[in-house]
């Protein structure tokens, strides 16, 4: 068994790095592609669903794929500080990789709308965290301005190296399946990840590593769905705070991806997201964060459109541990507390006596 060396070393020929690029890595990537039989059964007709569980990356989300590239290139280019706006995961990944690369990390977040685990990570990794009275879109405007006017490198997904790193998730899917899936279902916020996957599939297709390209199916939270309304949403709202974004940074790339792949954008309500979130955990043993469950919620919503016998990959972008408050609040499984510490009582509570 060869030890995993991180995605830059593994996919070096397909990435914009040279022998002199310092590789800042936490050995991200190589995340499992897990079959989900219960969800497959919900669709039936021989459809096979697998989830790409990117919540198992070092900081718990797919952002590590982008950040190993963005931070390695920032160090190569002599940067001393990076900055990002974030709904939480980007800030955690930026903080971890920037500190490992001995740089300062500034993160601007919407006050009160970042899940607890993500905030804890950014702080402990040593980022300088600034919470603004505004949403992600407001924060993003500020960091763009900061990067234009001050010596800080922007590491949001408009940084081209971010998508270069993130495209490796598509490589991994093809490497495991032996081909591209028929459908790729993915949550959409800024639309960086959907664009990155598409880049990856197209690049592998060009290299003859797969002989088909997937239909790219992007899912947004219904209250934050600019790709459904066709224009920015001024006041995005969803409990899936990771994708609470009204003015996506990768607007054009996302539409190009949709057109080229003959894919589609759809919306899912918070209730549908929570139902998929609970189903993944309680039926499949997979704990993802609410935004990630949008991919499965979306697939279930449009399940009649899936061709029989198709292979479908749903991307689970972040780990459920990121947002413990949501899990406790929205689990329909209740804690049995205040139980006397003796065997007979516990047996009774368990229904055995
Ligand atoms: N899923 C999770 C868990 C995310 O954190 C994000 C984005 C997305 C999906 C959407 O990906 O923006 O490439 O379409 N999170 C960003 C952040 C905005 O700041 O962490 P996208």
From TrEMBL:
Its cofactor is pyridoxal 5'-phosphate. Keywords: Amino-acid biosynthesis, Lyase, Pyridoxal phosphate, Threonine biosynthesis. It catalyses: O-phospho-L-homoserine + H2O = L-threonine + phosphate. The modification N6-(pyridoxal phosphate)lysine is found at residue 63. Pyridoxal 5'-phosphate binds at residues 89, 189-193, 317. Catalyzes the gamma-elimination of phosphate from L-phosphohomoserine and the beta-addition of water to produce L-threonine. This is Threonine synthase.
């Amino acid at each position: 068994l060869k030890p995993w060396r991180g995605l830059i070393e593994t996919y070096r020929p397909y990435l914009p790095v040279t022998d002199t690029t310092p590789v800042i890595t936490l050995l991200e990537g190589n995340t499992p592609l897990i079959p989900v039989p219960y969800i497959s059964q919900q669709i039936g007709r021989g459809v096979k669903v697998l989830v790409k569980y990117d919540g198992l990356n070092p900081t718990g989300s797919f952002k590590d794929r982008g950040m190993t590239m963005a931070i390695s290139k920032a160090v190569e280019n002599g940067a001393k500080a990076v900055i990002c706006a974030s709904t939480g995961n980007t800030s955690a990944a930026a903080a971890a990789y920037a500190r490992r690369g001995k740089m300062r990390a500034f993160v601007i977040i919407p006050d009160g709308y970042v899940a607890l685990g993500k905030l804890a990570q950014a702080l402990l990794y040593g980022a300088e965290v600034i919470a603004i009275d505004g949403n992600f879109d407001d924060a993003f405007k500020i960091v763009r301005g900061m990067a234009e006017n001050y010596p800080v490198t922007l590491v949001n997904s408009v940084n081209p190296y971010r998508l270069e790193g993130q495209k490796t998730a598509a490589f991994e899917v093809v490497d495991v399946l032996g081909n591209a899936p028929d459908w790729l279902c993915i949550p959409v916020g800024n639309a960086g990840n959907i664009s990155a996957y598409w880049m990856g599939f197209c690049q592998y297709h060009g290299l003859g590593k797969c002989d088909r390209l997937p239909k790219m199916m992007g899912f947004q939270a219904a209250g934050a769905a600019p790709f459904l309304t066709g224009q920015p949403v001024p006041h995005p709202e969803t409990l899936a705070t990771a994708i609470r974004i009204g003015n996506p940074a990768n607007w054009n790339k996302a539409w190009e991806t949709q057109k080229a792949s003959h894919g589609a954008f759809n919306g899912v309500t918070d209730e549908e997201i929570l139902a998929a979130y609970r189903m993944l955990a309680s039926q499949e043993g997979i704990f993802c964060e609410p935004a990630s469950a949008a991919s499965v919620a979306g697939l279930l919503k449009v399940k009649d459109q899936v061709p029989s016998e198709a292979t479908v990959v749903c991307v689970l972008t972040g780990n459920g541990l990121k947002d413990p408050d949501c899990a406790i609040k929205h689990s329909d499984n209740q804690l049995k507390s205040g139980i006397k510490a003796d065997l007979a009582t516990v047996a009774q509570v368990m229904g055995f006596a």
